[in-house]
Amino acid sequence: MDNQTTQYWKKRDEEKTTLLRVSEKLASVKEPKDLFQIVFELLQPTFKFDQAVVVLYNEELTHSRHLFHFDPKAEAPDRDEFYEKLMAEELPVDDSIYQEIVEAEEPKIISWMYLNDVYGHTVGVQSARSFGFKELLFMPMSFAGKKIGSFEFLAKSQNRFSPDKLFLYQNIGNQMAGAISNLIANEKVARAMEEIQLLNRKLKQQNDYLEEEVSSYYNSDGMIAESFVMKNVLQNVQLVSKTETTVLITGESGTGKELIARAIHKASNRSDKTLIKINCATLPAQLIESELFGHEKGAFTGAVQQRIGKFELAAGGTLFLDEIGELPLDLQSKLLRVLQEREIERLGGSKVIKTDVRIISATNRNLLEEVKEGNFRSDLFYRLNVFPIALPPLRDRKEEIPLLVKLFLTKNNKKLGKRITNISKKTLNNLKAYDWPGNIREMEHLVERSAILCQGTTLDKVYLPNKSREEDIPKDNDIIATLAENERRHILKALKRSNGKVSGYLGAAELLKIKPTTLEYRMKKLGIQKKYS
Length: 533
Fold this sequence. Notes:
Layout: H1 3-26, H2 32-47, E1 51-57, E2 63-70, H3 76-88, E3 91-92, H4 97-103, E4 108-111, H5 112-119, H6 123-131, E5 135-143, E6 146-155, H7 166-215, H8 228-241, E7 247-250, H9 257-266, E8 275-279, H10 285-293, E9 294-295, E10 307-308, H11 310-313, E11 318-322, H12 329-341, E12 343-344, E13 353-354, E14 358-363, H13 367-372, H14 378-384, E15 387-390, H15 401-416, E16 422-423, H16 425-433, H17 439-453, E17 458-459, H18 483-497, H19 508-512, H20 516-526
Parallel strand pairs: 7-14, 7-15, 8-11, 11-14, 16-17
Antiparallel strand pairs: 1-2, 1-6, 2-3, 4-5, 5-6, 9-10, 12-13
Helix pairs in contact: 1-2, 1-7, 8-9, 15-17
């Protein structure tokens, strides 16, 4: 065997060894960064190229994008910035060098002179020129009979790549195609699993909200409308419910703004979806954005997992923004953009998520005055105030007081195990004479307290604040609260402080320094509803 033949077979053995080692390494590739090590350790020392690129085509073979770029000599900051831009950019195949590569069935070695003459006007070649490349080797990548991209070596001098090694180049391209296809498949599986986990979390959070809705102390069936002003309110509720119009509910604290929001949702075409509530006054400013729009894992300290925001939870349903006047100015602009664009981005994320949500907001503030004082954006106000509903205070609808008292007594009889069926005339007169600064919420709490203290079947005494009649004020020596009553009052106070939240950060259980399960057991035993505010 002559020397030439010996050298030929020696080269072939070296090529087989290289292919075997590349094949073994590619089989263990899990993510694109694994390719860097293979290229650096095996291919670059063998082929002496200056840069390597993996380019993927879209399904129609009309556009390409960079999946991987290897440059061992580039400075890290410059390299990262360049690669990030390069990999994010999708370039058309037509009128570029990739038109030839897509059509090619085997590797191509292309000189810089040819590139400059034919494709010098294109973005890719102009970029290559700036880096001083003289020769390019394109290895087409096909998998299962389908072209998926190309594997490229770039050199800053000519005659770096040998036509004698086209067979080796082709095999490397084929092996790279298999590894890339596995990467794509794994990425799709991972993305599908992520979507499933996201949907499961979303379903769980929606179920939690539905449970709260079912157990809510207020419900739309409990609305009383005997006065002219309240009949007018309910007429407006019926008119606006079947539309998609944004509603702003105004009124003093305790007038039942949430009750009206529930009534609108219940009568709307979205009633089969969830009504999600967020109170803008009870959350720290730094948490409201996360509550509204959600966040990705690692978006900020403490973000240990992805969280779905209220806009996503309310998809297809209604989002009730209570105490909207308390929303910080910087978040007002973000909310306005969401309402205009109908899309959100989670904190720490870049994915745009389309929203299909009806907005109902409420406030006890005069938002027009807040706009004049610079505390509320005028453009957001007019966006929210498309259909305003103003709730009257209880002092302007006193003819409904007897019906409201009977409603609250009926609910308290069941909750407290009482049998109070009558109200004395004197008690009703005292209730009507009172101005009710806390409105219906104040009445609800006062009736509950009076029912607890009532010993018979007739409510003949109520304990209104600032009473001038001494005999109607309970004395310490007249009433001694039981331990259960004191415990119940203490739990209710904690629940009110936490806005009805039982567990978690700033929940009632944390405030009381007990386990959530223990608190839920005590609440059930004492007849306290899970949602109480």
